[in-house]
Amino acid sequence: MDLTTFAFLHRPDPETLAALRAACPGVEILLPEGDAGIPARIEHAEAASLSWNGPAIDDVLDAAPTLRWVQQRGAGIDRIATPKLIASAVVVTNGSGNHATNIAEHVLALMLAFARQLPGLVRAQDARAWQPPASDRVFELSGQTLAVIGVGALGAALAIRAAALGMKVMGVRRSGFAGDPVPGVAAMHGPESLDAVLGEADHIAVTLPLTAETRGLFDARRFAAVKRGAHLYNVGRGAIVESEALLAALRSGRVGGAGLDVTDPEPLPADSPLWGEPNVIVTAHSAGETPRSLGRWRALLLDNVGRFRAGESLRNVVDKSLGY
Length: 324
Fold this sequence. Notes:
This protein is an alpha/beta fold and 324 residues long. The protein contains 10 helices and 12 strands.
């Protein structure tokens, strides 16, 4: 498939730009106006790279009638999944898998922090107080059950690591039992079994994208199905978990603790009561941060550019109607 013009809708790092130029001699590479604007000559572009802070996708589609493929930097497409994009013939590929390792490790860090009561120990250290936790407050992850809600690349990375710690991992995904087995997952379920899975899990990791079906998925009714004292970790999107319902579940003891990398709204307002809850850890949407993800994304971009030019199937193609 011919590629004459490629547009960056964000400011690329020098190494990525140099690598793309070396891989595509003769291809015109367009750079944005400012850090994240629409480049001049975008009307000639067949493909483009879009990051989290790019221009509005509808404006891009209006300006680029020859566009056939967009490679997104991140995994979730909720910001760009407009009716115009969904109805278009433009293929969207995402960065699924680029952050799987570091976010899975982030969830493990949160789980271990609660297991060893690190939040209280850090507060005691700040107060210069020697206050070890009571023995009935600490616990071991080995032998406990983790429910991974959304077993994509991230959920799969988490499952294999949790299983290595001796945890029983239960997965919930849209396709349920269909598809290949996932290493580390002892039992896979469909969405219809979500409440039953939540009733068995000591830990619940939300690794879902934000779609019409997942928005507000964890509301008051759903928290009522959670095993009493279970810990919740949200590294998907903030709007999947209703903040007021979570707060009520924490204060009633239904949820024993929450590790929140994402919140709704985001950033979490300074007056949110979640900040003051002793059994909440807020990590300010930092789970995706790692110096290695850019290299993984660069390799994905170059591979997909090569596949596009050769007319081959692209990696990480998103079903725009589903949102992932």
